[in-house]
Amino acid sequence: MLIRLTVKDYVLIDLIELDVDAGFTVLTGETGAGKSIILGAISLILGGRSDAGSIRAGASRSDIVAEFDTSKLPHVYSFLDEADLGVDDCVLRRVIDTAGRSRAWINGVPVTVKQLRTLGALLIDIHGQHEHYSLVDASTHSQVLDSFGHLSNSVKLVEDTWKSWQFEKNKLNQCLEQSEALKQKAEELLETQRDLDALGFKGKEWAQTIDRHRKASNMNELIDAANQSVRMLGDGEQNILSILANVRARLNGVVEIDPQVDSMLQDLEGLEIQLGEFNRDLRRYAESLDFDSGLVETLDRRIAEVQRYARKYGVKPDDLEEMALSVQMELEKMSSHANLDELRRAEAEAGEKYFKVASQLSSDREKSSIELTQKVNAALVDLAMSGVRFEARLNPKDEPGVAGLEQIAFYVATNPGAEAKLVGKVASGGELSRISLAIQSVAHQDSAVPTVIFDEVDSGVGGAVAEIVGKMLKTVGQRAQVLCVTHLPQVAALGDSHWKVSKAHSKTDSKTLLQKLKPKDSVDEIARMLAGEVVSEKAKAHARELINSASI
User: Fold this and answer.
1) d(CA 77, CA 119)
2) DSSP code string of 361-376
3) Low-confidence residues of the chain, pLDDT below 50?
């Protein structure tokens, strides 16, 4: 609910602070005192249209702040959380400067006016001479009826099944729209797959083929190098092994002269053994070499074939195997997506489920609309509007939707025998306010909006009807926070809290003032409303009587 409203430099307001209690709060004051100015400030904080002309004369900007308690409003918590606006508090601020620029904040975070308006609609509902938000806006009629009929769970189920149906329908439509393109793409992928299967290429083959080709192309050079090396090591007339044998013989002849020569002989013997083994390995390698001109031609053809496919598909030869796997996966994916029979079955089942739950909701709404119509008309009779006929209608939609199969609309006939039309099209401001009150008195107990504001809902009534209006407002105030601007003492006497709006004049300007009245001051104000400018003791006694009877 609304906790505090602070308004600075707005029209005739210098600075006011309105600390709002729970229950039924009344605002009274003489005509022109500034009650409508306060409501205008509330409208701005809810995202209403701004105007630089509303800035108080001599000020550079208007600044309006509203603080709310949202601890019991999970839908507000969800809005703030999803928009990343903080959830510990709910403070709305709106600033308008002399250039006509408007800025808005929620919990200190800059936001658009649209975001402010969206959140504002979750917090306050205004019913006045010119602003009957939920009543004139036909899009909210469904919310009122569904709330009255305790149908929120059914509405959520319809919304969920609608979304599921649309999801399946979109999948089917996308598949149908893309079927020709998918068919062509599949044919291209199949051709690619056939090419790569015929090529039979594996990733490691490329490096191995290049190595084999390099060896085969240089076979004569390899054979010559190997044979010459074998002759130099051991097979030629002057070979390394025979030279080492001569060196060993010469050293053996002097080993007895110098014992140090013995260690060198041992090293030489090891070297001879290693070179002998190496020579045998080299001889076997030379014997294994065989020039094959046919192998070179075969490898040339394979390399050319692989390079041709690599160029065709714009990849490196090493990447052909990975490309083949990718083609296979894409074909498998397309095959699973292109199962039209399965998609049609899923779409039909989702649609059948939607119509089942939507039809049940329509049946429940029909029952609730009859009950709401009866109760609102009974309340209108109490409000001295017996000639007005209210009707909650279920108008079938041309197409089913997320909210069901019908559009809820409120109709009224303002005169006996007259044709009922949409409530915002035929009723006057005063009639709209009282119709709003009648609806709120029977339907607001389940409304998600915690604060309701009525601006002169009692316009044009008096006497016993005025008392009924006040009692209805007080009844709504037991379930929600209610603020009411009133000129009727019978209504003011029923308020749980009483604020007085007045105007102070000086030589230079006029200011709107706001004062929370104590019980004694409330008696004086209600007496003024009864008697006018000259307040007598009789008027005060009558005011006390009204207040006392209201508390019984």
Assistant:
1) 10
2) HHHHHHHHHHHHHHHH
3) 130, 132
